[in-house]
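HUMAN: Spend a minute on the protein record below and explain its fold to me.
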Amino acid sequence: MDRNTITGLLLIGVILIGYSLWMQPSAEEQAETQRIQDSISVVEANVAAQQAEDTAVMPEDNEPQAAVPQMDSVEMALRDSLEKITKQKRFGSFAEATVGETILHTIENDFVRLTLSNKGGAPVMAELKNYVTFDSMPLYLFDKETSEMNYSFWVNKSQEIDSRELFFEPVTEEMSDTRAVYRMYGNSNDEYVELRYEVQPGESYLVDAEVAVVGMDNVLDASEGQFELDWAIQAPFHERSRKQEQQKTTVFYKHFDDKADYISESNYEVEKFEAAVQWVAFKQQFFSAVLISETGFSMDNAQAETIELEDPRYTKGMATQLTMEFDNGRDPSFPFQFYLGPNHYQTLASLEIGLEDQIDLGWTIFGVVNRWLVIPVFNFLDEYTGFSYGIIILVLTLLIKLLLFPLTWKNYVSSARMKALKPEIDEINERMKDKDAVAKQQATMTLYRQAGVNPMAGCIPMLLQLPILYAMFRFFPASIELRQESFLWAQDLSTYDAIVTWTAQIPIISEWYGNHISLFTVLMAVSTFFYSKYNMDMAGGGGNAQMPQMKMMIYFMPFMLLVMFNDFSAGLSYYYLTANVVSMLQQFVIKRFFINEDAIRAKIQNNKKKTKKKSSFQKRLEKMAKDRGLQSPKK
């Protein structure tokens, strides 16, 4: 052989030797292969022994096909053995926990009944004992068919374990009517993951919980890593109006040192948390299921989402993924809490973690009015009068109208002055009907200035009343106190008071108006029409000639309210109805006993004889007229 051939053979030899060394299994792989082979050998030996025993007792005339089931037994034993080995590799020390029987356990106090399962060691159902659905069924915040909670963690930094795949062992001596403790053991009884739940005694909606890792520092990564908590529910349908309840159902959450935030009720989306989260709430119209942590859930891989559902038994799907960072120490743990209860303002506020922010009381000034005026007065009447809620709403209306009476008085006096000027305003409109609109407006403003009348005087009191009107618009639909409280024909003041219903889907009507007629809404719309017309008549209809569209509003606004409020809270429509009626009674009494229209006219005529400075508004109007080449009207 020449030198090139020898060199080639040497290179081939080096490559073969290198490849053999590279492909040689590691010590761990050799051990694992040997263990599998040993397990199969043991199974085959046991099967062979069983076959020999069966053959010894087999009758001489036994048919050959009788041995066929023994082959099935071999295959079954091999399959079971391989499955066990696979589980051992997948779940490590927790392989035995993959087999078990589901056992439910209930803990409860005066307010909450919480059902837990050893499969996953998590809550599967929560019932509020003092509440029922609109059709008198038990009220569940979530149920075992549509709720899933999972703790996930890592074993040996390579294997992710989901608790929902494993059976935890109830700690018998720790199980009671108020407490449940589950453990998932590792290689010994001194190594385990523990899940602990305990309802607070008496009248409380809080459930204390804790995840702990004991004696498993070398197995789990909890001491230096994290557990993830995943929770998803489909919110059951509780109220008469599924549409309204669905619009009030979403996920709220709160970062530390920040106000509560939420996923828009009208959208279905995923919200990734940008900082540690103090709590996450699955908020429904009147009830919430909340996860709370004093130390906070880490922002790592943390998010929440809302999910659209087709099933009419549920309003909306909600889910969250949170990260629990364990404390330092040999046996690390992570304590947290559940709040499972009503969206009652005082109850939530008493927890002092901002949970009351998820109750929609209106933004800025409207929320302030509700928090510092409406809610305290409402609670006082509720606690100390013993009145029904219908009467409480009436008394609340009277008190608010009494508080606003100075503004109402000023508004009425302004309307009376405008009415006294109506004949002269009509004369200006007739005399200048062919003139420019700015010129007519300038002449009118000159008359106002001479008479000492401010046309804006009636608008300002109305604007000052708007915060209370809008605050009440937010207060009543959010008040759980009105839930399932009846008054007159309304069976439930928190939802619509249907006097006529139908099932047929009528195009446009069913979509925009609904399949029912709410009587309080009809009465409210009628009262709004008469109240608006009464106000315009009080002003002498002075604005009609200049703003004809105001006439249309008298008819258009009640119609809009009739459509918009048909599905709203009966308590809200009842409040606006009583407010309109009381306002008309106030104005009637003022006109009848306190206002002398002849004296007002005389005062106006006297004011016209005096020299008046031009207001800034008058000056602006005159400047506009001059810019357009118009002359100021002569006095």
About this structure: The chain has a mean pLDDT of 80. The chain has three domains: 70-96, 100-359, 366-619. The first strand starts at residue 104 and ends at 108. The longest helix spans residues 27-56.
